[in-house]
Amino acid sequence: MLTDQERAHLEEHIAHYPEKRAGAIYCLYFMQDKYGYITKPSLNLVSELTDLSTTQLDELITFYTLLRRRPVGRNVMRVCDSISCHTRGAKKVLEAAENATGKALGEIANDGSITVLPSICLGLCDRAPAALINDDRVEGELTPERMRMILTELAEEEIKLSEKPDYQNIISMLTPQDAPAKPNEEVM
Length: 188
What we know:
2Fe-2S; metal ion binding; iron; Glutaredoxin; 2 iron, 2 sulfur cluster binding
């Protein structure tokens, strides 16, 4: 699952803390970055490294919304549905996303390109309703029309990428290595 170098890196990181458990979130993010989500074997390994039970780690994952136990699309869009965004139309924006992708929130689009997730406050209340794409792109003052446009842009970017010679190699690297049989089923 992890190379010797990756495991040593995690052990070295954990060693900086007075208690092993303090390194749990870093280790969970590391596993998520490697596999696209936190797999059961990843959870077991983090449990071993941090001396926390898998139940305790699941509690952390449940609390921190940026951690995932299920596979997601190659792009992840988090749309705020907290009070400021809700009062400014987040519900209609989320409905537009479902209609545009043909999938319920949290599910992977048929082409694997995107997962749209409702999210707690993103701290972008002045730009409500707002979204965060791939944890590094902010979109604010969303409307259903703007949501459809953004999803179309992301799909077009996927098409352009698919025309590049190494695209399939890149996609295979980004695809979780031990994905469950049902892509939207929680991995236990």
